[in-house]
Amino acid sequence: MIYLDYQATTPLAPEVKAAMLPWLDHFANPHSPSRAGREAAAAIEHARSQVAVALPPHGDVIFTSGATEALNLALRGVHSDGRHRIVTLVTEHAAVLDTCDWLEGQGSEIVRLPVGADGLVDLAALRAAVDERTALVAIMLVNNEIGVIQPIEEIAAIAHAAGALMLCDAVQGFNRMAIPDGPDLVAVSAHKIYGPKGIGALWKRSDVTLEPLLHGGGQERGFRSGTLSPMLCAGFGAAAALAVAKRETDAAHVERLWHVALDALGPGWTVNGSADQRYHGNLNLRRDGLDAARLLAELRDIAFSLGSACASGSGRPSHVLRALGLRDAEARASIRLGFGRYTTEDDLADACRRIRVAADAQQRWVA
């Protein structure tokens, strides 16, 4: 199988697996005062420091079960007297949009801003929406479906000018690029950076206060109750350290792969969203008349996507593609190819040539 679904998840790095294996047998509870417990706790703190290096300074790393929990903790945990508005984008991940729906039912005011055909926020519209009633602005760094990079520094500045906080879902950008200055809260995930599933983190600026989402023993610095897994924490830390060390080489490799893919696919395709202001490891594109679901079924030994893994199987066109102004037929003619550290140029070129041949065959059949 040729794996081209790096936005859904990434392969586990061998170095990460090696860091995790010792903790498979070292079963002590890291919250226990025993010697074995203290050893496990020390491993977690080492992992925390490794993750922190990849995030802004002057903040705290709170381990969670994943980015979904981290985003819930941020959205539901921020309280600001007299401020009940949250401003976000219609193209955000379901973990943000669905939580905002829930908060709206609890009395919060939710402003869901549109994006342009390029997938980018209109900063003037954002500035008009963020006022003295706003507690939080929640906008992702790199869109998980189309790879578009939002201007996070400018967004954070607009939030701060109105006295609001800024939450950045950095899952798809974490360690693929530096986290821009400005956010007060940043959600990240291990399995998008060649680490294990089941662990993520919320970074918060040191002076930001949060209400806990999970109540119990208060193990994770009072913000998140529950026993931490030393094995998962060690894996996350190793993945973060490795990604920092390989950031430049990974970026150069992805840039080469972007051009390999476009060359092999040939003409007739349109990139969805901005082709310039985006992460080039995410190639979301469409072809007129293509039945993307049929294409996916025909090429079962190539792993690619029709959109977000979280929305797969719903039968509905992507909410992100519809937000760009695409018709349903155009959205259903779109595919997402994701590639990264372990994708070879030969495999990618081969997969894209086969996608092109299958798409050509569909077009001949329709004609």
Question: Could you explain the architecture of this structure?
Answer:
The structure is a single chain. The chain has 367 residues and is an alpha/beta fold. The chain folds into two domains: 127 residues, Aspartate Aminotransferase, domain 1, CATH 3.90.1150; 229 residues, Type I PLP-dependent aspartate aminotransferase-like (Major domain) (Aspartate Aminotransferase, domain 2). It has twelve helices and twelve strands. The strands form three sheets. The protein has a seven-stranded mixed β-sheet with strand order 2-8-7-6-5-3-4, with helices on both faces. α8 crosses α12. The longest helix is centred in the last third of the chain and has 36 residues. The radius of gyration is 21 Å and the shape is globular. The model has no long low-confidence stretch (mean pLDDT 95).
**Helix-strand category:** alpha/beta
- How far apart the termini lie comes to 31 Å
In which range does the helix fraction lie?
25-40%
Task: Note poorly predicted spans.
Answer: none
How many beta-strand segments? 12
Overall mean confidence score, pLDDT = 95
Task: Tally the structural domains.
Answer: 2
What is the overall number of helices?
Answer: 12
User: Rounded to an integer, what's the Rg over CA atoms?
Assistant: 21 Å
Which word captures the global form?
A: globular
Q: Strands of the biggest beta sheet: in what spatial order?
A: 2-8-7-6-5-3-4
Give the strand content.
5-15%
- Give the H and E element order: EHHHEHEHEHEHEEEHEEHEHHEH
Largest beta sheet, briefly?
A: 7 strands, mixed
CATH first level of the largest domain: which class?
Answer: Alpha Beta
Name the CATH superfamily assignment of the largest domain. Answer: Type I PLP-dependent aspartate aminotransferase-like (Major domain)
Looking at the structure, the CATH topology of the largest domain is: Aspartate Aminotransferase, domain 2
